[in-house]
Amino acid sequence: MIESVDRIRSQRSLVFSHIPNDLLTEGRENVLGGYYRAQLRIARGKRTKADKILKSLDKNVIYQRLEEEHGDLLAAIDIATRGKTNRRNFKGELIEPLFRLNHS
Length: 104
Hints:
By secondary structure, the protein is an all-alpha fold. It is built from six helices and no strands.
């Protein structure tokens, strides 16, 4: 069972097919791809590699705007790759993800 879930989690196209097309324009697809890779590495226990990606993303203006405006999308990627999210809104409540895959 774990192997099949890991296989699904590693299929970027499955996750990205749930993202609205208007959120995949203006360089966001590349940034979201980086975020997806970082979360996948965290899920696989490769925190050091993930931290490098996340530090790079933190400097990216597109990523900063995604965090501010589309936390629900990032939460969905978290859940699709790791099974959970730590993203919270300004009130401290967990953010409801934009979508959920069948396995998440």
